[in-house]
Structure formats: C-alpha cells, structure tokens
Amino acid sequence: MAAASAPAGRGGGLRLLRIGALVAAGLVVLPLLAVVVMAASFSDALPHLWRTVMPQLALNTLLLMAGVGISVIMLGCGAAWLVVRYRFPGHGIMQWALALPLAVPGYLVAFIYTDLLEYAGPVQKALRELFGWQGPRDYYFPEIRSLPGAVMVLSLTLYPYVYLLARVAFMAQSASLLEAARLLGRKPWPAFFAVALPVAWPAVAAGTALALMEVLNDFGVVDFFAVPTFTAGIFDVWLNMNDAAGAAQLALVLLVFTLLLILLERMARRRRRFDTAGPRAAGRGWRLRGWKAALALAACLLPVVLGFVLPVAVLLMHAARFWQESLQQGLMEQLFNTLLLASVVSLTAALLALVLAFAARLDGSATVRGAVRLAGIGYAMPGAMLAVGLLMALAWADGLINDAARAWLGMAPGLLLSGTMFALAHGHVSRFLALALGSIESGLARISPSMEAAARTLGARPAEVLRRVHLPMLRGSVLTALLIVFVDSVKELPMTLLLRPFGFSTLATQTYQFASDEMFEEAALGALFIVMAGIIPLILLVRAMNAPSSQSETARF
Amino acid sequence: MNRHETGSRTEVGDVAADGRSPACARLQGLDVLQVEGLAHRVDGRQLFADVSFRLGLGMFASLLGPSGCGKTTLLRLIAGLEPLQQGRISLGGQPVADAESGVFLPPEARRVGMVFQDFALFPHLTVRQNILFGLRGRSGRDCRARLAWVEEMLERFGLAHRADAWPANLSGGEQQRVALLRALAPQPALLLLDEPFSSLDVARRLEMREEMLEIIRMSGTTALMVTHDAQEALFMSDLVMIMGHGGIVQAGTPTEVYEQPVDPFVMSLFGHMNVFAGRVDAEGRLPTPIGALPVPPSLQPGQRAEAHVRASAFLPVDASPEEGQGALVETAAMATAALAQGVPPGVFPWQVRGRVLSAHFMGGSSHLHVAPEEAPDQVLHMQAPGRFLPRSGATCSFWLRRNGVFIFPAGD
CATH number, domain at A379? Predict the structure, then answer.
C-alpha cells in the first residue's frame, strides 16, 4: 500500500484513527504478551513437566507436522498439477471440488471416521459378516485413532490450502517454460520436478505453512485420537491439572514452534519471487484419454470423496435419523449462541480492520505500519495459546478491578472480563482479525491514490471522498471480511472450549461434547450447519477463481 | 490462394531442387528437416493445408507471414509440442511424426532446440544452470567437450561475468543470448526460433540479429525461424518461406521473394504499395494515373489486372526542389545521369508529375503523399531516398523504377 497518500482528514480525525489502530493491535497482541510474561514470571521451569510430558508432546507434534506437511504437499501439488496441466472428463468440476474438504472442520472428519472405522462401526461389522470373523483376534484392522490416523484426517482437510495456492502458481507459469524443459530432453514428470515445482515452490511453501499452522491449532482431532500435541497438552495441564504456570509454559513452547514455522516459510520464500507469466501463461492442458484420463479423475476424486462427500453423506444420514434428538438437546439455543458470537466477532473484526487499514493508508508512519503488521499475526497463533494468554491477562485485569472496587465501593463486582462472553469474543477477534484485515487491505489497494486525487480535483471534500469513493468501492471487501470471519468463528473449537462462559455451548463445542460421549449421531444436525457455513466462503472462492483477475483468491486461502 | 491464380503454389522442395537458390542447391540431398503434406485445424477452422518443404544441412530458413497464419503452430508441430493432425515430419530422414502410421516422438526425443518468444528461461536456475539444463545425463569426453563449449560461448558473448546471475537480473539482450546458448548446448539437429526478437526493443533488435546469426552460423546448426518482420527474414535467411492463405505461398532466396513476388499478398509484406486496377488495352498495356504500364504476355487484352507499385519505385527527377540541395548523393547522381542521358537506367521512359500533399522526414528516407496530375483525387505513397522534402503544393516529377512495378491479373 502506498505509504503516504495525501492526508484526507483533519489532524484530530487522523490522531483518533492512529489511536484506534494502536488499540486494535494491542487487543491482538495482549494474549501473546501475557503468555510471555507469565511463562517468564514462573521462573523456575517446572521440571516434572519438562521431564514427563514435554518430550512426548514435542515428538507427537513434530511427527504430526512432518506427516501432514508431506501429505498436503503431495496431495495439493499433485491435484493442482493434474487440473492445471491436463484435461480429462470431469476436469472442470474437479477444479473447484478439490477445495471442498476445506469446508469440513478436521474434528468432524475425525468423529465421522472413528464412527465408520472403529470395531463397532459399519465397515468392520460388514467385514466380519462377510468373512465370518468372530472377534478382533481373527483379523487385522488399522486403528484409526492413532498418529497415522490423525495425519490422514488432518491431511484430508488441510491439503486444499496447498492445492489452491499451487494451482494459482502453476497457472501463472508460462507454458513455454515446461516446453523448453521438454525440448531440452526431460519427460513430462521429470520436467515437472525440474522446473514446474521449483518455480511454484514459494506458493507451495506458503500453503504448507498455513496447513501446519492449522495442525498446531488443532485440538479436536488430536484429542479425539488421543495423540497429545502441545495444544492438547495445554488443555490437559490447564483443565485437568489446574496448572496455570504449566499451561503458560506449554503455550510459550507452542509460540516458539509457531514462530519457527513462520521463519521457515519466510526462508523458503526469500529466494526470488518468480514472475513467470508469459504470453501464454498456463496455456492449454494436455488432453488425456482412456485409462490415463480415468486415473487422473480417480486421483482427483479420492481426496474429494474422502474429505468431503463421505463425511457429508454420513452427517446427512445421521441428521435424518436423529434430528429430533438434536432439537431436544438444545440445538436451537446452540445455534443462537453460535450466530450471536459469530456476528459480534465478525462485526468487531471488520470494524477494527477498517480502522487499521485506513490508519496505515492515511498515516503510514512506522508505528502504525508496525501496529498493522502485529494485528495480523493472530491468525498464525494457535487458539489454545491465545486463550491461555488471554485468560491470564483478563484474570489479572479482573483482579485489579475488583481490588479497586472493594477499596472504593466496598463491594466486588466479580469476574467482569474473564469467563464471560467478552473473553470469548476477544479471543476470536484476536485470532481472526488478520482475515478481515487481508480482505479490506486488498480492497483498499484497488483504490489508487489518483482516484482520491481525481475526486478531490472534482471538488469533493475529504469526508465526501470517503463517503462517495472509498466506502462504495470497499463494500465488497467488507462483506467478504464479515463473511470469512463469521464462518471461521462458527467452526472454531479449541479457543471456544477454553474461553466459553460456564454453560455456554456453540454448535462446535456441542458436537465435540457429544462425540466425546459417543453420541455423535445426535449432534449430526448441528455439525451439518457448521459444514454448510464452511461452504459459503468456498463459493466466493470459486467465483474468484472464475473471475478474469484472480488476485483476491490468494488473499486468504 | 483464391483471386490471384498466377502464382501457382511453389513447391519449396523444388526451389532447392532446381537450383534457383544457390545456398539451397549446394546442400541438396542432406535434408535435416522434411515436412510433407501438413494440415492443421483449430476449432474446426483450417489453419493451413498441404504444407511441404525441406531444409538442408546448415541452412537458415524463415517462415514469414502475418500473425494468425499458423506459422507458430507449424513450428510447434515440428517441435512435437502440438499433436500432428495430418501429414508427416521427418528429422534427419527419420519420421518423428506421421499422422498416417501414428508415429509420434515426444519433444524430448526429437533433438530439436527452440528459442521461445518469451525466452522461457528457468527463473530458479542461474544462467549457467540454465544453459547446462539440456546436458544432464551425458558423461565422458562428449560432456567435457560441451562444457568447454559452453564456457567458451559464455566468454565470447560477454556472459562470463553473468554466469551465476539469475535470469530476472539480465537485460533483454542477455536473456536472449542465454536462451539461444541453452537451446544450442545439447547440439540439436534443428534449431527453431519463435519470433525471437519480438520482445526486444527496436534498437536492440538489429544488433541481436547479427549476433544470433553469428552464434548459429558458428555452431553450423540448421535453423528455422518464425517471424512477421520482413526485414528480419530477408536479413537472416538463406530461404524465406512466405505463409498466408492457408499455406506456403512462395519460397525462395531473399532476393527472389522480394524481386519476384508471386502475388500481391507476398508484395504487401515488404512495405507500402500503390494499387491501380484496370483492364489491359489493345497494345498490352494497363492504363493507370502514373502511365500506361506494360503487362506480362500472359495477360490478354481486355483482361482485368492490378498494378502494384512499391512506394520506393518513385525517384524524384529534381533532387533539390525548393528546399535547396537536400537529397542524398544517390538521387543527385540519378539526376545527373538523367540530365546526361535523358533517361536514367532501369526506369520507364516517362515522368510522373504530381502535386505534393505532404512530405515527412524519416531519417534514411522521406515519405511523400502526392496527387498525380492525371488523377488529382488519388494519393500516391512515395518513399524517396535521403532527405527530399518539397513544400506542400509544390509540383514535382518522378521517374518510375521498373523493378518496383508488378502487374497481377485481377478477378472480375
């Protein structure tokens, strides 16, 4: 964004904007800061924690990241390469269908596959009946609730991050790059590995980093599959052991992991950004026929079926049978809670994002730009870590308020911030502000400084320019920001579990609760609502994919 | 080929065979590339049909034609980058693609090098890595020889200090040299060049033409270039093949295609023209505002015909009009010759008189719009050598060069 366009407001307005931006950034950074401060203040590291839990958590986390990382690169790049480079029956549908698994939160897929594949599930039952096996000793069946199972489930739901970014990168590559490699003696697949993949690598690395951030953030899958990672460890230490110091230290380790991940991604991208669009970017694909076409279609269908079609079909089946039970379990109340929370969060995030984006555009000082960048890091931070930090900060603030109230008023108001809707909404906003910011910044970038200048020379005053030029042009971006924050808030699980007020349930927490109690079927209707919400941004995405200029689609996904 | 049936399509192979072109004849019998009966359709539209030609060893040939005539597609068919629909392509006597028998060698198996319009340098590899890309899998003496060749070429063409640079940091000319060296490094049997100069600015083009030609000549590689720039084709080629009307319209040496164009389309590729239509009169002449032009014997009296006259066919009689002495020596000499002998050599024995409407200076030549006295409502385009800038409204006289006038039959 242009650093300093003409100041459009009077001094007072601008100062207000600047303060607003700093406050917004402060809200996001507060939980992070709290984690660091708390972890540092318990200066004697808890030796038992380090000795007993930490190695296991670290190992699980690393293995999970490695497994998911490799799988999403293979699935995402492979699928993207197939749809960009080849033409086969079903190609058009596969282009967008491959993004669908993103709509199903990992924890839902985990519940569904456990349901299907466990000993009492339909698959094993059918096998037993088919082959006449009597008990578990008669045959081998892989245990889904395991580390490999978690890798599979998370990869199936997260590969679209890599797919979407790699697809754009492959499409931007000039067709002659690959043709040159062919003419210099490489067969199609060696040419892919020698040229197409390395050139697309920055995008692949970015997509993989996004997927791995989700892995660090995930609680539902690892908890349900009993593969304790750092996030699961925080829950355990915090909720079961009531150990705030331990939770803070785990959160700090998680923060370090996240920062390392961001650093790795930056390093992968630091080598030149390739601008390879030639006169015939992407070009036409190579037509496949016969068994090769069938193989390509099957390769694309597999992740879509496993990651979307099958889970949704199971949910539909359960929902059709158990919808009455769902309603009796307070589905309407959970729905209302979810919508309320998501509305508050998305409106707040969009508003703060507008303040930040305008402050950066109009002020452009190093302080404001730094604030904007800080405000954007929340999305990379695991929800459990943010939640721990936030709870500590808010509890400390509550303590101050109560002390002050007791001293002056002679009575304590109790917990005003922590353990209330405020804490929950604050947590969500910290994490999802980056999404709104990205959307609004890209919208604002489309308004060139010369448009402002044109409006001014045509006689519009600054406020008028804002009203007649900026706001109409930003309407789409603000709507997008509202929508994607809303949806992510609906899907969010770990932070909601930690921050929700007592007795407050959303669709996500209720689904998790029921699945833990082995009554997943009765929460299927609510889960279906979550998936439906998740499909909405994908529709936006597909529309952006088909639009002539596909700039916006890289913004978030 | 619809209206003008004079130029029966020339078989390019014939050009080489009947020895009209010395460069082709010399290398006759050593065909590096043989293209037979190629036809191609795109979305149901016939792009070209019945395209056949041969290229001898060491020859530099070009395909010249307007954009959309299928010349790039033809190049891609030869490279194996497009599926062949009809016909046969052989390299070094071996069929690499044959629509009838279904033979189709993939591009990596054809030993064909290509320089792309956008150069297509691999952005993640350095200059040297780019050039060595095609040498992977080689070993032993052959490989060492090629590596030495690469280093020598880098040195020779001023790229040695850029060998470890990224392609993105090179100038357009440097990128082009790298692209060419990369294509030549594996010693391809045939080098294809797809509009290689179109992404360079005009000033760099002339320089690069000579340098590219030098590199290719030194390597002794047979080359086929696609271009829409007639000057480029004339400058670089032994053989110019002109594509249009869904096929190859004419093929020959640069002087042949320029001096003996088979139809108006070929002529139009080489610059501004004046066209006059009419009927051949009883004496076998075509009456036009610039005089009655003698027609070839193949045209009968009463037949409709068109005269195509190059802008450069007009020579000012008075080289120094009101402007003062401005014209180049060439025209001055012409004028002196005219005074001495009455009529300079190579022109028709009459003068074209006209009123100058405007005159534009173009550096090496001057461009004039002139209304001929015979038909004051028409405009003649003239290109006079050097500086020749009479005032608007002045009346001037011009000789008409015989070799700039072509008469073709016209449909009724």
Answer: 1.10.3720.10
ipTM: 0.75
pLDDT of the residue at B340: 58
Q: Quickly state the pLDDT bin for B25 (edges 50, 70, 90).
A: very low
Number of domains in chain B: 2
The verdict on residue A491 lying in a domain is yes
Residues of B in contact with A179 (CB under 8 A): 79, 81, 107, 114, 116, 120
Nearest CA in chain B to A176: B120
Mark yes or no for CB contact A176/B118 under 8 Å.
Answer: yes
Identify whether the C-beta of residue A175 lies closer than 8 Å to the C-beta of residue A89.
no
End of a domain among B234, B268, B302? B268
When CB atoms are compared, the residue of B106, B114, B123 closest to A272 is: B123
Name the 3-class secondary structure at B357.
Answer: strand
Q: Do B81 and A185 touch (CB under 8 A)?
A: no
Phi, psi torsion values for A506, nearest 5 degrees: -110, 175
Residue B116 and residue A176: Cβ atoms within 8 Å? yes
Contact present, A31 and A430 (Cβ < 8 Å): yes
Domain of A481 in residue numbering reads as 343-385+418-502
Of the pLDDT bands very low, low, confident and very high (cuts 50, 70, 90), residue B19 is very low
Amino acid, single-letter form, for residue B361: F
**Angle subtended by helix axes A366-375 and A11-41, to nearest 10:** 50
Same domain, B391 and B325: yes
By residue count, chain B amounts to 412
What residue of A is the nearest CA neighbor of B116? A176
Test B118 with A275 for CB contact under 8 angstroms.
no
Does residue B213 sit in the same domain as residue B347?
no
Pick from A180, A186, A271: CB nearest B116 = A180
Q: Are B361 and B389 in contact, with CB atoms under 8 Å apart?
A: yes
Partners of B275 in beta bridges: B308
For residue B83, give its domain range: 12-111+188-268
B82 and B229 part of one domain: yes
pLDDT at position B71 is 92
Do B264 and B326 lie in one domain? The reply is: no
What element of type H or E holds B42? strand B31-42
Same domain, B219 and B106: yes
> Which residue is closest to B80 within chain A, CA to CA?
A183
Q: Which residue of A has its CA nearest to B186?
A: A184
B81 vs A179: CB contact, 8 Å cut-off? yes
For residues B109 and A268, which has the higher predicted lDDT (pLDDT)? B109
Q: Is residue A452 part of a domain?
A: yes
Q: Which residues of A touch B136 (CB under 8 A)?
A: 185
The rounded Cα A452 to chain-centroid distance in angstroms is 34
Domain of residue B37, CATH code: 3.40.50.300
Tens digits of per-residue pLDDT, A160-197?
A: 999 988 988 888 888 888 899 999 999 888 999 999 99
- What span, in angstroms and rounded, lies between the C-alpha atoms of A505 and A526? 12
Is A541 a domain residue?
A: no
What is the total count of domains within chain A? 1
Sequential DSSP letters for B346-403: TB-SS-EEEEEEEEEE-SSEEEEEEEETT-TTS-EEEEEES---PPTT-EEEEEEBGG
Provide residues of A within 8 Å CB-CB of chain B: 174, 176-177, 179-187, 191, 194-195, 198-199, 201, 271-272, 274-276, 278-279
Q: Which residues of B touch A272 (CB under 8 A)?
A: 123-124, 166, 168
Comparing CA positions, the residue from A491, A450, A489 lying closest to residue A469 is A450
Q: pLDDT value at position B308?
A: 93
Q: What residue of A is the nearest CA neighbor of B131? A: A184
Contact B133 A194 (CB under 8 A): yes
pLDDT, mean over chain B: 84
Higher pLDDT, B115 or B19: B115
Q: Is A101 within a domain?
A: no
Residues of chain A falling short of pLDDT 50: 1-9, 277, 279, 281, 548-557
Per-residue pLDDT at A409: 79
Residues B272/B278, Cβ–Cβ less than 8 Å: no
Lowest-pLDDT range, A7-11, A149-153, B197-201, B272-276?
A: A7-11
